[in-house]
Amino acid sequence: MESRWRRESRANEIREREERVAKVRAEADRLQHRLDTLYLDKIEGRVTSEFHDRVAATWREERDRCVRDLESLAFAEDDVIDDGVALVDFARTAHHRFETLPISSKRRALNFVLSNCSFANGELVTTFRKPFDLLEKIECPDGGCTPPERGSAPESAKMAP
């Protein structure tokens, strides 16, 4: 289950993206309104064709930049979703993948995730490296369990002497 801090972070990302989209969309609309008004001014003879063409070209470029920004913001959302799906899929299969690794690869993986491990009083005591220390703070789906104390191993990791 997604932790509270991750949900809040994700909510902030979504809010910031929506604010950016609204700002860029408003800018594109403002430029389109200017173009429309400039065209009417040209038709009614208030501005010359040369002036219209020069100014309209600049405003069209700016409007097109806004449209590209909106498209990239939409693609960025898709990338975030794809990354999230890939991460969930990886997490779902991580245990099985770890079990099938040779001992040397398991050792490298554990050294990457853990530091300062020790075996004392029949228990394996672990310390996670950053950012894996966040694993200790993950909320349980049913909300009924608590994270392990710092440095203690989960029940499945405890070993007899």
Automatic annotation (TrEMBL):
Keywords: Coiled coil. Residues 14-41 form a coiled coil. It comes from the Bacteria. This is Uncharacterized protein.
